[in-house]
Amino acid sequence: MELECTTITRETVVDEVTKMKNDGYRFVTMSVVDLDEENVDLLYHFDKDLEVVNLRMAVPKKEPVPSISGVYFAAFLIENESKDHFGLEFDGLVLDFGGTLYLEEEVQRTPFCKYGVIRKDAEAAAEGTA
Question: What is residue 76's three-state secondary structure?
Answer without folding.
Answer: helix
